[in-house]
Write a structure and sequence with these properties.
Nucleotidyltransferase, domain 5, single chain, 43% helix, 115 residues, 4-stranded mixed sheet
Length: 115
């Protein structure tokens, strides 16, 4: 098996292992994180109804990726508080809790979300 294919299957396995345990409701939605090479995306999902409640994307400014992720987390927390959402369950989507994923979580916590 090629190295890239093996890495992809490992990420998918990790993702499914986490997703088995993490479930979002309307009162406590799931904060799902997606990283691309340039941007980071975060959304609050109600798994019971299958709807996205809040979604945020990083901008393309002159900051590091970790700083952009932190700002994205703060923006997500601000929009969530407007919809009266204070608690979430964190879904790192198979990524390690490190770097940009950790920065986004720290920004969301600083913005007022609890998880």
């Amino acid at each position: 098996m090629y190295k890239v294919a093996l890495r992809k299957t490992n990420i998918e396995r990790r993702k499914l292992r986490v997703r088995k345990k993490v479930f979002g409701t309307a009162e406590k939605p799931r904060l799902s994180v997606f990283r691309s090479l340039r941007y980071i995306y975060a959304q609050l999902i109600d798994d019971a109804s299958g709807k996205t409640l809040v979604a945020v994307t990083s901008d393309n400014g002159k900051k590091t990726k970790a700083e952009k992720a932190f700002e994205t987390g703060k923006e997500l927390a601000k929009r969530a508080s407007e919809k009266k959402i204070n608690e979430v369950v964190f879904d790192r989507n198979g990524y390690k809790y490190h770097g940009r994923v950790k920065s986004l979580a720290d920004g969301a916590r600083e913005g007022g979300l609890k998880f």
